[in-house]
Amino acid sequence: MNLQTVQSFYKSLNKKVIESGIVDTGISYVNGQSVMEVAKQHEFGNGKVPMRSFLALPILLHEDELRAHIKKAVNYAVKINDADIVHDAVGLEMMYLQQNAFPTEGYGYWQKLSMKSLKAKGAGKTLALTDTGALKGAISYVNSSGASSKG
Q1: How far apart are CA 146 and CA 93, in angstroms?
Q2: How does 110-140 read in b/e, with b if 16+ C-beta sit within 10 Å?
Q3: Contact, 41 vs 51, CB < 8 A?
Q4: Residues near 7 by Cβ (< 8 Å), separated by ≥ 6?
Q5: Closest by alpha carbon to 131, among 151, 143, 113?
Q6: What is the pLDDT of residues 33-86, one digit of tens each?
Q7: How many C-beta atoms surround the C-beta of residue 94 within 10 A?
């Protein structure tokens, strides 16, 4: 691969944006709230609902891991001369980190459920934000070329 090809490859990497987050699924909870509304309440907290970040926190906590993943993806993409593979690899890794926040209770950072919440959930259900799977299932990524994946 010559210098001009490498420069062109890196320019194509810089032209695209990867976004990972919640997609409006159109699904509503029993109380009528949309998945988007519930996601916002938990991501930022609202005074009544404690902050249980599952979008930003996993990325911040695993920034070094994500950077290593990006480096591997770039090295592979250079070998096969396909910049799009980098965006897909990064998008999928971001989704994985965000979805893994649920079974790990925010990688150990989320506030534990209150006794009232635990009783309401029923026996054996101790994890926050996992009753319906709607939030976890609404996590997706999209890159500026239109490629996407949904949880």
Answers
A1: 17
A2: beebeeeeeeeeeeeeeebbeeeebbbbbbb
A3: no
A4: none
A5: 113
A6: 899 999 999 999 998 889 999 999 999 999 999 999 988 988 888 888 787 788
A7: 23
Length of the chain equals 151
pLDDT in tens, 117-127: 888 877 777 88
Separation between Cα atoms, residue 133 and residue 102, nearest integer Å: 9
For 21, 65, 142, the CA distances from 35, given in Å and listed in that order, are: 12, 28, 18
Question: CB of 29 within 8 A of CB of 132?
Answer: yes
Of 105, 106, 107, 126, the C-alpha closest to 117 is 126
Beta bridge partners of 21: 140
Question: 3-7, 57-61, 99-103: lowest mean pLDDT where?
Answer: 3-7
* Total Cβ atoms within 10 A of residue 16: 16
